[in-house]
Amino acid sequence: MTTLIIRDFRPDDAEAAAAAHRAGRDHLVMTAEAFAWHAAHQAEGAHFRTFVAELDGRVVGSVRCALVTGTTTKGIGYANGSVLPEYRRRGVFTGLLAAAERHLAEHGVVEVHSWVDEDEDALAFARARGFTEGRVAHFGGRDLTLPLPEAPPLPAGVELRPASEWAADPYPIFVIEADAIRDEPGEIEMDAADFEEFLNGDWIHPDHDRDLTVVAVVDGEPAAFSAVHTDGVDRYWSAFTACRREYRGRGLSKLAKLESLRRAREAGLLRAYTSNDATNAPMLAINAWLGYEQCASERKFTKKLG
User: What pLDDT does residue 165 have?
Assistant: First the structure.
């Protein structure tokens, strides 16, 4: 008899949960260490929780859920997860999603957001459970063993430096992110970025590589960056590329991302991945110039909780 158990994540679930997260998604880069780390490093008030599905003693899937922070909009939560392909169609994710929705509702969430793979079965699953489909994001992949575009000359006063140079005080990096995230495509206005949340989240994330994260500096002032996560082996993920509003239109994000990829090649990484909203034409154009090719897509779904 098959026994399905939905329970809270434990640190020793990390390898199995990360494997389910990446299964069939070569474009996702997240280590088991990072999976475990997320459970202990979330913003106060986010009520972050990870549930895992255990089938006959084996962890076969998980869902991560929390309230959306960094915004003054109240009552918005998210739930994202996956199940190993060979264990789908057995009610596993139905159980995980139900647990996530109960948890979010208990903490005042009235609308849950979820990213769903652009796969007919996955899309049908979301629609059947009351979710409404919305915008699309595209993933791009690049073989880092292939040549990169030739770097254009640096404008006067511009330097490209690793984020590790700000290890003692990353606040200038936060300023760039807080400004840029307000203009990211999305349904929620991200108007309440918090430095402590950035410091204890993005900056110390175990997959964050500060030497490959490149900052464009204009006349001594950090103006743009391209942040990088790696799996510690051969895969590179472009976590966020950002530019302060007053410095846009100068090609700084393009320069930072190109220099980051160049450093990744020198470090021996083999595959690079990135993701952008389908409406983000400027970044999609930069990625095409950098040699990324679309390799997958996902769609945002939302659901009102009663």
Answer: 98
Q: Is the CATH code 3.40.630.30 the one for domain 4-109?
A: yes
Q: Do 4-109 and 142-299 show the same overall fold?
A: yes
Q: Give me the count of residues in the chain.
A: 306
| pTM score, whole prediction | 0.95
Q: In this structure, how many other beta carbons lie within 10 angstroms of the beta carbon of residue 44?
A: 10
Tell me the pLDDT tens digit for each residue of 128-144.
999 999 999 999 999 99
Name 133's Cβ contacts closer than 8 Å, sequence gap at least 6.
Answer: 116, 123, 126, 127, 299, 300, 301
What is the C-alpha separation between 140 and 274, in angstroms, rounded? 5
In the chain, where the domains are located: 4-109, 142-299
Class in CATH terms, 142-299: alpha beta
What local confidence, expressed as pLDDT, does residue 1 receive? Answer: 52
For residue 269, give the amino acid letter: L
Tokens of 20: 């389910």
Residue 300 has pLDDT above 60, yes or no: yes
Rounded to whole angstroms, the Cα distance separating 174 from 282 reads 22
How far is the C-alpha of 161 from the C-alpha of 138, rounded, in Å?
A: 28
